[in-house]
Amino acid sequence: MFAYRxxxxxxxxxxxxxxxxxCNRGARGLAPPGSLQGMSTLExxxxxxxxxxxxxQSGRGSLASWWSRITALVLDxxxxxxxxxxxxxxxxxxxxxxxxxxxxxxxxxxxxVMTALTGGSIGQLLTRIAVIRLGHxxxxxxxxxxxTLLVCLVIPPLVIGVHRRGLHDLVCGTVVVNRR
Length: 180
Prior knowledge:
It contains 8 helices and 4 strands.
């Protein structure tokens, strides 16, 4: 699954990390097959989550905690419920038909627009976390809409990969980090 590559400066970098960032310790080069001299191709060592993505261990730009992410989602859903009830009435909570999907529709619009414009939904802004692209760029409209659509499908955020990234983050090339 993971293989190390040896850089010309003599350091070991996991090839998974190399996909997202280059070695900043010196010139890069791939080691020829068989020259890894006993290094395991299945082990990786990271001192903290997000190190393989080039993120800091703590503070601004470090991976957001699960509690922050879950709190942000609950806040977003609460705001979406309030807005949907204000616009469409209480039938969004108890009714059938198209009105029963209005909370989800409001959530989709709120999260997509806010993520594209500010780098995070209302809940993410309140919990001081942000969605960024791996190159530390803004997410943009296409990725924001695609990411929110995958969140609305429920299953992609539950499929968790490396570095606390759900399938929706892996597909869109994004990561959730701390703003503080």
